[in-house]
Design a protein that fits this description.
Elements: H1 2-35, H2 49-61, H3 72-77
């Protein structure tokens, strides 16, 4: 039971941090995609349909699985 409480506390504490970092990561990837000539929409940190399409196109053109997901690994490749 104790580990479940610890896990719950960790999730509750880290969830807002992850949301903020996710927004920053999304904005960085959006900016990088714009620099590379893709159209992810506004570089505002909010994932949109345009962002997902641009990410998928980048992934497909670079021999990656075109998931459309923004991850730290994707940011490292871009």
């Amino acid at each position: 039971m104790g580990w479940r409480i610890t896990l719950l506390v960790a999730v509750l504490v880290l969830a807002p941090v992850r949301a903020v970092l996710g927004d920053e990561l999304t904005q960085i990837v959006q900016q990088d995609l714009i620099t590379l000539g893709y159209d992810p929409g506004a570089a505002d940190g909010e994932p949109s349909v345009k962002t997902t399409i641009a990410v998928s196109k980048f992934q497909a053109e670079n021999n990656m699985d075109p998931t459309g997901e923004i991850t730290p690994q994707l940011a490292g490749v871009i």
